Amino acid sequence: MTGEGLKRALVERARALGFDTVRVTRPDAMPLAPERLAAWLAQGFQGSMDWMADTADRRADPRILWPQVQSVILLGLNYGPTTDPLAALALKDRASISVYARNRDYHDVIKGKLKEAAGLLAVRGGSDVKVFVDTAPVMEKPLAEASGLGWQGKHTVVVSREFGNWLFLGAIFTTADLPVDEPETDHCGSCRRCLDVCPTNAFPAPYQLDARRCISYLTIEHKGHIAEEFRAPIGNRIFGCDDCLAVCPWNKFAQAGREARLMQREDLAAVPLSELARLDDADFRIRFAGTPIKRAGRDRFLRNVLIAIGNSGDPALAADAVAHLDDSSPLVRAMAVWASARLLTPGEITALRDARQARETDDDVLREWSRISPSHAARESAP
Description:
Blueprint: H1 3-16, E1 21-25, H2 33-42, H3 51-54, H4 56-60, H5 62-65, E2 71-78, E3 94-97, H6 106-125, E4 129-132, H7 140-147, E5 151-152, E6 158-159, E7 167-174, H8 193-196, H9 215-221, H10 228-234, E8 237-239, H11 243-246, E9 271-272, H12 273-277, H13 281-287, H14 298-311, H15 318-322, H16 330-343, H17 346-356, H18 363-370, H19 374-381
Helix pairs in contact: 1-6, 14-16, 16-18, 17-19
């Protein structure tokens, strides 16, 4: 089978499997990637994601990852929301969960489909294949731009003229020599909505992301305590952040009336914070089975929920924060202290401090208690 025929068959198979867009590029189609990645890492923008630096050479050049690769196929699956993903931000007593996390874990969904699509190349073309879904050092976004699937916007996320900001990406590396598609050009123009909407100023410049300030990084990847300067801006975002994606004007051009192939779970939209705060480890695992949220673990998740409770301004939620002051996890206890101080009266939080501070053994939790004084509590509790 010719390369052209093999590509046509692949596209047909991929669409039958549910992929909405398929493009092909060469492994050497992103010559600026090594320089840009090195500059990003040199500034420490990766935060605690040490694997970014550890795999920089393979990440910047697919041929180092797999020397035999001849063609790189980028596939996109539409997960666009059917309702405004930012609507939950106004509901302070409820949780805002990123759209992508309200589905089955996309790694599981896409990898099986990629393997089926790649199998066609092996059977009909006799080609070797490898599939990747954000689990190996592959720079899917610049490859997607090189393939014409979309372009990297000023917020560094891939934007598609057909699907806006809502595409899960997967990649197939193959030894097959397939016809390539034309690269996409940047269509952001002078727009900077995605940069200006960021609550934590995570974009030091257009096309640059400082992950250390990004709410998605802080609530998902970051394993430790979240710095105080970011807690109030996080609001009620307990897992991820859709702000920069949702405000992009290109979303309105996402195929009108076409529903996403992956529909969001309704039970994960605007969930009451009090309900989430009361999950023990077993309940957490059951509630979020099959979703990306489960991978964060109960302690990190409760850390995020307590920050949201502290930002709610609702004294009725104070009891849920106080209930975690004796939690087994210091990560949870520390944020229970912070949230309690935001919601209780000065007298109430001072009494709790006096009762618990002497028996606390964790330095980070003690540090949270030490910040509390009657004047601090009154200031933090103010609307």
